[in-house]
Design a protein that fits this description.
alpha+beta; 5-stranded antiparallel beta sheet; Rossmann fold; Neuraminidase; 603 residues
Length: 603
């Protein structure tokens, strides 16, 4: 059952989750949103409450981050160039169905995909790749061939989010990396280009900012404690107050009510993310979570009467919802789960903890068991590495469960959602304790009745690295491995010029210096230990991937085949780090499931 089911799951529509996946028109009568439907990520519009979704334009590449102009005349969004992460910005005029590329002839310009419009709608602010990092730049909201009209305001080695204008247009704020995974908020005066920082020290980090409606305050996630709190920064005085603090959970992604009297934000709790509302006048906190799973990107309707957010449930793909603040009534604005999947008995995961192999850490994770276990299991490792698996929609998880496999998602050292100490616990130690956390998942599964000889491992990106690290460091454990868009070599990842320079800066800041730490980096690079591989492997990559280029995939496969090991590989043309084209996406997931089912004795 796993193979035919995964083809349906891989093709299921889904609303976006990252950056800015939706936007309301100024009057609140229309919503634009990212939707994976019919073969790729595109922008759709829907008149509220009951209009039919309609696709914007006829572009073939991934589109993201819709944004309406202040007067509602235009809809702006980003479009990737075949997965290369060299985004263009498009302007769409609904009344005329007119679509214009504002950044034509920019094949090498790599901005982050979520630009912002000035309050008067005349200028765009964005972060654009520039040398070893990013520059905060502005340009008129008009076509600029070759990006000639871009004007740089500030330069940073690494920028984590695109700029946001204050309501009066006098300032731009942006989250920037300062070292390692520490962040600060940089506030830039748009007239003088003078700037200053909020956070960024050893004792105080800040990020995920939101301007208040009056432009005088910035809400953010951060603080001096292990678990991020919700703070409010006053521009006039430089003072900070803590709107909400809980020393046991992480709070993040604040959003202001239109009158400035309340904040919505998200809270991570044991592998799920709750939606919360805080009244700043009386301190009342109300949870408006729609259901189990992960909530993303909260915002208020223009009249402040409802909250909007994306929810990814274990039994349904991410969809857009609104919640009435008066009575908590929930209205789905999209319905992504196809009719032919609505009778599938999807299985919810649960939060677990287990001891790492070095006995230095208790490792959190998500665990899911099928109704009729067949003894086989798979460890699915997340990428990032600063991310975490949650109890939400996961096509591979459900396909494996349907085929009788037990599933474990380790949230190893380096995962977010469990406090800053845990998130930073793999800095300078990548390939070490984090891999022991993942490998200990094998023992955890055996203790729950799984056959030790029928446990496979798979992951994408950093999870692909983990897969290769696991099969080289602990070759006796695994029945098979599938490494998606992986990297193999800490040294190569810092010198390969096909990798963006800001990503190489991140590697330098978190894995080590290729000169001073060369011996360590070589020792923990899986490419130097291919002679230890015993498990059959499947390697999958995207030809245009700017993060983990596929050059070494064929080299690794050749070495393993020469040793007589099973190693299949596929590099998908016209795909980047995310394999998103429908045909390739289905093929990627189908191959992953079929390979693991075959080598765990399930077919």
């Amino acid at each position: 059952m796993g193979t035919p089911l995964i083809e349906k799951l891989a093709a299921a529509p889904a609303v976006g989750e990252d950056y800015r996946p939706y936007a309301l028109a100024p009057g609140g009568t229309t919503v634009a949103f990212e939707w994976y439907r019919g073969g790729d990520w595109q922008i759709y519009c829907k008149d509220l409450p009951d209009g039919e979704p309609r696709r914007v334009g006829d572009l073939q590449d991934r589109c993201a981050c819709p944004l309406f102009s202040p007067d509602g005349r235009y809809l702006y969004f980003s479009c990737d160039d075949r997965g290369s992460e060299c985004f263009d910005v498009y302007r769409y005029e609904p009344d005329r169905a007119d679509l214009v590329n504002l950044l034509p002839e920019t094949p090498d310009l790599a901005p982050l995909p979520d630009p912002d419009l000035s309050p008067d709608g005349t200028q765009l602010a964005m972060t654009v790749s520039n040398g070893s990092g990013y520059a905060v730049a502005v340009m008129p909201a008009e076509p600029s061939p070759g990006g000639a009209a871009l004007r740089h305001l500030a330069q940073f080695p690494y920028t984590e989010s695109s700029p946001r204008w204050s309501a009066d247009g006098r300032h731009i704020a942006v989250t920037v990396g300062v070292r390692g995974q520490d962040t600060a908020i940089c506030v830039i005066d748009t007239t003088t280009a003078e700037s200053w920082f909020v956070g960024g020290s050893d004792s105080f980090f800040a990020g995920q900012l939101a301007w208040s409606p009056d432009g005088r305050r910035i809400a953010f996630s951060g603080g001096p404690d292990d678990h991020p709190a919700i703070g409010v920064y006053e521009l006039a005085t430089g003072s900070i107050t803590w709107a909400w603090v809980d020393h046991d959970v992480d709070a993040h992604h604040p959003a202001w009510a239109p009158d400035g009297g309340a904040l919505a934000f998200l809270v991570d709790v044991e592998g799920e993310t709750a939606l919360c509302h805080l009244d700043l006048r009386n301190g009342d906190l109300t949870e408006y979570s729609i259901g189990p799973g992960n909530h993303y990107s909260p915002s208020f309707s223009p009249d402040g009467s409802t909250l909007l957010c994306v929810l990814s449930r274990p039994d349904s793909p991410p969809d857009l919802y609104q919640v009435a603040l008066e009575d908590g009534e929930v209205t789905p604005l999209t319905e992504s789960l196809p009719e032919d999947l609505r009778e599938v008995p999807f299985i919810s995961g649960r939060s677990v903890w287990y001891t790492s192999w070095d006995h230095l850490a208790e490792v959190p994770g998500i665990f899911a068991e099928p109704d009729e276990p067949n003894g086989a299991a798979v460890v699915i490792v997340h990428g990032g590495p600063t991310w975490h698996h949650s109890n939400e929609w996961d096509a591979l998880r459900q396909a494996f469960l349907a085929a009788g496999l037990t599933v474990l998602h380790p949230n190893y050292r380096g995962s977010d959602g469990y406090g800053r100490r845990w998130q930073l616990a793999n800095r300078w130690l990548m390939g070490q304790g984090e891999v022991l956390d993942v490998a200990a998942g094998h023992e955890f599964l055996v203790r729950r009745g799984c056959d030790p000889k029928r446990i496979a491992i798979t992951g994408r990106s950093w999870g692909g690295f983990h897969t290769m690290a696991a099969v080289t460091q602990f070759p006796e454990l695994w029945a098979a491995g599938v490494a998606g868009v992986p990297f193999f070599d800490f040294i190569d990842s810092q010198v390969d010029t096909s990798i963006r320079e800001d990503l190489r800066w991140w590697d330098l800041q978190n894995t080590g210096d290729i000169e001073k730490d060369r011996a360590k980096l070589m020792y923990y690079s899986p490419i130097n230990h291919l002679d230890r591989v015993e498990a059959p492997l499947l390697l999958l990559g995207g030809a245009l991937d700017p993060r983990c280029p596929p050059r070494q995939i064929s080299e690794v496969a050749a070495v393993l085949r020469e040793r007589g090991r099973v190693c299949e590989y596929v590099v998908y043309p016209d795909e980047g780090h995310e394999i998103s084209g429908l045909e390739h996406r289905i093929d990627y997931d189908r191959r992953t499931v079929e390979f693991i089912l075959e080598h765990t004795g399930c077919v």
